[in-house]
Protein: ABC transporter domain-containing protein
Organism: Lactococcus cremoris subsp. tructae
Amino acid sequence: MFVINKKGENGILKGINLEIQEGEKISIVGKNGVGKSTFANALCHFVEASGEILYRGQSIVNDSISERAAKIGYIMQNPNLMISQNIVSDEVASGLRLRGFDEGVISEKVEEILQVCGLYPFRNWPISSLSYGQKKRVTIASILILEPEILILDEPTAAQDLKAYREIMDFLDQLNHRLHLTMIMITHDMYLITEYTDRTLVFADGKIVADESPFEILENENFVKMGNLSQPSLYQLARKADISPISLTKAFINFQNQERLKHE
């Protein structure tokens, strides 16, 4: 679906070669300043990058920011930095209005996307009265209405308690399955990558130094060191008990999901 080939050695990113398939859930990890956000900004064309970017076999290097946004949506860490309107429905509609869509079409699409995102009951609410997690959903809805096939999320669970964390990640998981969206998440949350993503890219010094499943990344001491990552406590417990960290983590996630289902 998506191929990035950045050959240049100038700037922050160096020699990035990557292929992304439709519907993948990918996490990007690594310490601050190694190129994670620059990579995301380059995909959205917020910054210039040399090399080739192919989308469904076609080059999108010369696309404008607006053209790129029709394919790739970017969700910032802080929803307050994305919101420009006072009312929920107006915020969700703003992207289509900027593109000159007919108001009848806008109204229909806004209603549909608000239903998908669980925001329809709040459509006429002032955004200032929403919780942080609800504001996050509003920003996601305002991007989804443009019908991108790829979502890039910067620290999707930052500044949220466990309940809000679960709600936003389960919501994103549902979008992935329901809309077949490809999701790329920049995060420092090692638990998130094991429970909610299938593939992890470790960035270091502007390069992708590892591209494996999140479980394999966290089990490999070299990858952990290169990415300045923190192994979850379950990995440390497994080693002390002389059992597989991957098996223990998967068993714990399955148990936790089953317990949650009992109380839903």
The chain has a mean pLDDT of 90. The longest helix spans residues 162-179. Residues 2-230 form a domain with the Rossmann fold fold (CATH 3.40.50.300). The chain has two domains: 2-230, 232-263.
